[in-house]
Amino acid sequence: MNRFAFIIHPISVSDIARKYPIAAKLPARLVEWGARTFIKPKVVSRISGIQSTLDGSTVEGWFIACPLTSRILLHEPAEQTLPAVIAAAEVAQELGAQVVGLGAMTSVVGDAGVTVSKHVDIAVTTGNSYTVATALQGVERGAALMGVELATAEVAVLGATGSIGRVAAEILADRAAVVWLLVRDLAKGEALAAQLRPGARAELRVATDLATTLPRCAAVVCVSASTETLVEPQHLRPGAVVCDVARPRDVSVAVAQQRDDVLVIEGGVVKPPGEHVDFGFNFGFPPGLSYACMAETALLALSGRIESYSLGRDLNRAQIDGIAALAAQHGFQLAGFRSFERALDETAIAAIRANADARPPAIQ
Fold first, then answer.
1. Where in the sequence of the chain do the CATH 3.40.50.720 domains occur?
2. Segment 165-177, tens digit of pLDDT
3. What's the CATH number for 131-268+337-357?
4. The dihedral of CA 79, 80, 83, 86: what is its sign?
5. Would you tell me which of 106, 140, 290, 315 could form a disulfide with 294, CB atoms 3.0–4.6 Å apart?
């Protein structure tokens, strides 16, 4: 049986407080300092029950916690944060894992896993290839349910110059009429647009202002590395489909509270194969469901593809298509839609569409 491990970390200090209640009463920066100083990477649960529908093979794994929060991983120099990520990967190796996945912000530190892979003798992946594949599957399915014709629509990729955003924009440029590259750095955005235009069906446009761009878009893919929410209720047009892949979320919870006419879905939610899949850890999903990045790590082990699959910042379409095909072979499936920690069935989506149809095309 092959084995894998997946590295997780606290999104914020509130996650640390769930394990250590005293942390809720202390200053956030003090808690972060204490966690990184005194808590070592460690196993938090065992993963079992994943079984291929192709050949019946099984795989087991572990969640390993790195004690650094999203803020630290995103804003502090990589040379200060990478040692903790490497230490977590070393725990995976000691356990006997053959491939380790980098979850959430551990996948964006420094060179997106390349340095980590040089310090361990096992395969390393960010899981980003399957994340892209499932996010775009979700957008297409959501668009169909909301009556959105992607082929004639304007769509946006928020965080387009990142590794996930770049390849998502490239694929969407074959499926939409206009693709907006929403970026912080205009020069980088224009450089990406120039790179993609020769092979694009869509018109590619670059913008930095969400307030003027998002109201034009029928679909939005959110993949930024921001630690703060970026998409607010006033940004979205009625009937828009928003796939939020980012963790922490790009879309404000206020959208769920104030906009019953837009479909916001969590990107990359996957049902791995097996009747008794058990992750042994509550990360906000119903039993048996996982993020696509976790699923990619398990899939590589299950299929015997012991290789560093999604590594670095240069994903390509062949990787996306390849991992999607491999997932289908072994029975991994895009899970039903979820939005802000709750399930959405087709009845709920039909109500959202009805609310959108009853409203004018522009937010007043």
1. 131-268+337-357
2. 999 999 999 999 9
3. 3.40.50.720
4. negative
5. 290
